[in-house]
Design goal:
globular; binds adenosine-5'-triphosphate; binds magnesium ion; four-stranded antiparallel sheet
Length: 242
């Protein structure tokens, strides 16, 4: 099957003063991928998300979305072009209801009130939030708060949904449910997903392609089976976690 490149990162370097957080990183995310970006703490995963989503420019290198250079495009414009990300820590407004959080996300892309309400209902249904639309997000259990973050990001129906550690703090049942939601997002909405995640069991189960970073450097790329058996990856990362 021919695959089309959706996100192209080339020789991307990001420095913070004297610290090189990401060094000359190159990788492609293809349409239809559930793509995993993994590596030890401080490897540069969130920094990569910050750069591809326009929250910070690269020090060097380029990022292209569907062929268009977005290396120095502001986040709201990157969002309009179809790339949306969640943050490692909460991506919602705690004091507001689930409904209003999703509503805020739809303002910039949907003009009609009826269409916005329809989008909110559909998004809430997908994320299992239909029965709590009018609850204040801060009062919900942790697992549901994580679902709100994803709902807010997915409400704009991006082409590429970037999720920074969406499974943190979820129990096994919740993880299973979320992986099923990811599959629906890919299959029913044809949305490509890029995932940063430390839950290796889930990553190996859901991702078709994985890139491994270590200390800001590219370490390996491949299918889950190749990554699991790559000695460099095992010694840098997988071997450290049981
Ligand atoms: N805004 C910033 N200013 C200065 N240094 C930063 C900044 N953001 C990240 N760093 C540094 O860059 C390096 C990479 O951090 P990053 O957050 O990208 O790692 P990560 O792979 O997401 O780690 P984790 O798995 O712990 O979330 C770290 O050394 C971090 O301290
Ligand atoms: Mg991070």
């Amino acid at each position: 099957m021919a695959t089309e490149v959706l996100l192209e990162v080339r020789n991307m370097t990001r420095r913070f003063g004297g610290l090189t957080a990401v060094s000359k990183l190159s990788f492609d995310v293809h349409k239809g991928d559930i793509f995993g970006l993994i590596g030890p703490n401080g490897a540069g995963k969130s920094t990569t998300f910050n750069v591809v989503s326009g929250f910070m420019p690269p020090s060097e290198g380029t990022v292209r979305l569907a062929g268009e250079d977005i290396s120095r495009v502001k986040p709201y414009k990157v969002c309009h072009k179809g790339l949306v990300r969640t943050f490692q820590h909460d991506s919602y407004l705690r004091e507001m209801s689930v409904h209003d959080n999703i509503l805020v996300a739809t303002f910039s892309t949907i003009r009609s009130k009826a269409e916005r309400e329809q989008r909110i209902r559909e998004t809430a249904e997908l994320l299992g939030l239909s029965n709590m639309l009018h609850e204040v997000v801060g009062s919900l259990p942790h697992g549901l708060q994580r679902m709100v973050s994803i709902a807010v990001a997915f409400a704009t129906r991006p082409r590429l949904l970037c999720l920074d550690e969406p499974l943190t703090g979820l129990n096994q049942t919740e993880v299973g449910r979320v992986l099923e939601i990811f599959r629906r997002i890919r299959d029913e909405y044809k949305t490509t997903i890029m995932l940063v995640e430390h839950n290796m069991k889930a990553v190996m189960q859901i991702c078709n392609r994985i890139v491994v970073l270590d200390h800001g450097e590219f370490l390996a790329a491949g299918a889950p089976q190749e990554i699991k058996s790559n000695p460099a990856v095992v010694s840098a990362y997988l071997g450290r976690r049981s």
